[in-house]
Design goal:
globular, about 425 residues, DNA-binding, about 40% helix
DNA sequence: TCTGGGGTCCTAGGACCC
DNA sequence: TCTGGGGTCCTAGGACCC
């Protein structure tokens, strides 16, 4: 059996940990630039606010109902996620982190010694006690069914945080009651297609013959069908190394100058390079994109992306930034109001490359040491303490707005919580 | 006024090879 | 009249996920 442990309304739950007065109150968390709602508690959902809605469109409801609003603080959520996931790893030997708020737990062998439901309830209780984060667990033969079960665990109090699908009757009952569009792997397009073919519940889909499914859908659809019928087929391999790393942001205000665009791209390139080094790999290609504001029909629209291949894969901030800035020269067009830019690293390989005879970077090994030194200084004294001058100062026009951000209580010494007694 | 960010996998089709 | 067949590799774009 396999379990999916899922934190309930995770970002909102983390905010509630640090604002205990909000228990039972509606809470919303915003995306960067305070643009959209990305997480909300059930109390906020009950007011008619939907995940993904632009903030300004629901501002009235929020003010009228005194909904607590927070700018998303991913550093804080990541730090909390680490704590929750480590408790899960202490409970089950083999686990697989699927996202910031979800982890698969492989329960093979545990059923011989434990009642699985009670064992998972014990873990949920420990997480609640140690971190104050509410978690729901679904247990089933496959990941897709475990996801279904976890939704039931979250929705119905009677399950006391853990729901198991361990018989054919339970499987059929669960699939007949579940929303087809909510099945893992069935997105908007697949849902529409299934409905047009007369399939409206997960059970109807699962009961279709296999060759019917293969005829109408490709591999992903067929895999979902197998999983719903109890045959595990979604890979259990852990993704050890990412295949691409990207950083992009919408700007606080639109910009038109090349220098400002370069400043943003330099900052994103250096952030990508950081992530790259932290996982011990190098990138063989750098891409940069920039685009205008797609919502402003009154302005000229423009969007472009350029890619540079490096002769030798690199994890050097200076080299990657230089390559990114050259791309800006190619794709920049004057007279455009830019709203967003981004950097994508790809062709990622593990490790760093030693100095080569015909190396375009003459002192490659020293440069690696330089990057590592900067990393350790920033680790000790705070993010971006040492950075490239071209990245610019704080409060530049393009930098993001986050007006309701909770301090980085868990990761920045300067922002640590103080308590007056 | 105001509209997110970071990923993965799959497939079709083009380019190229013999 | 009539223009092969089989294969690989790469990439853009679609679909999906949180």
């Amino acid at each position: 059996m396999i379990a999916l442990a899922d934190c309930n309304t995770f970002f909102a739950s983390v905010e509630k940990v640090f604002h205990p007065g909000l228990k039972g109150k509606p809470v919303c968390v915003l995306s960067s630039n305070d643009g959209n709602i990305v997480a909300l508690t059930t109390e906020a959902k009950a007011l008619g606010i939907k995940r993904g809605a632009p903030f300004f469109q629901v501002k009235d409801i929020i003010e009228k109902n005194h909904v607590a609003v927070f700018s998303g603080n991913i550093m804080l959520y990541a730090a909390m996620s680490k704590r929750v996931q480590s408790i899960m790893r202490q409970t089950v030997a083999r686990t697989e982190s699927y996202s910031i708020d979800e982890q698969f737990l492989y329960l093979d062998g545990y059923e011989e010694h434990y009642d699985l439901v009670e064992y998972m309830r014990g873990m949920v209780e420990k997480i609640r006690l140690w971190t104050d984060i509410p978690v729901s667990v679904g247990i089933a033969r496959t990941k897709t069914l475990a996801k279904v079960a976890s939704r039931f665990a979250k929705k119905y109090k009677g399950y006391r945080s853990v729901c198991i699908i361990d018989s054919e009757e339970k499987r059929r009952k669960a699939l007949s009651m579940f929303e087809l569009a909510d099945v893992w792997g069935i997105g908007h397009r697949t849902y529409e297609k299934l409905v047009s073919l007369g399939v409206t519940t997960p059970l109807q889909f699962a009961d279709k013959p296999g060759d019917w499914v293969q005829r109408h859908f490709h591999k992903p659809g067929y895999q979902t069908w197998l999983e719903l019928n109890g045959t595990p087929c979604i890979s259990t391999e852990e993704i050890l190394r990412r295949q691409s790393i990207s950083t992009s942001r919408s700007f606080g205000e639109m910009i038109s100058s090349k220098d400002q665009l370069k400043a943003s791209v330099a900052a994103f390139a250096s952030s990508c390079a950081n992530t790259l080094r932290s996982q011990g790999s190098s990138a063989g290609a750098v891409s940069v994109f920039a685009c205008s504001n797609r919502f402003r029909e009154d302005l000229e629209q423009y969007s472009n992306i350029g890619t540079a291949m490096l002769e030798i894969p690199s994890a050097d901030t200076l080299e990657l930034t230089e390559a990114a800035l050259k791309i800006v020269d190619d794709i920049y067009r004057p007279g455009i109001m830019y709203k967003k830019s981004g950097v994508i690293l790809s062709h990622i390989v593990s490790g760093t490359v030693q100095q080569l005879l015909f190396d375009p970077v003459p002192n490659r090994e020293e440069r690696v040491v330089l990057s590592e030194t900067i990393d350790s200084m920033n680790h000790k004294y705070g993010l971006k303490t040492v950075r490239l001058a071209i990245e610019g100062e704080k409060n530049e026009k393009w930098k993001v707005k986050s007006e309701h951000r909770t301090p980085n209580y868990l990761t920045e010494l300067s922002e640590i919580m103080t308590i007056k007694i």
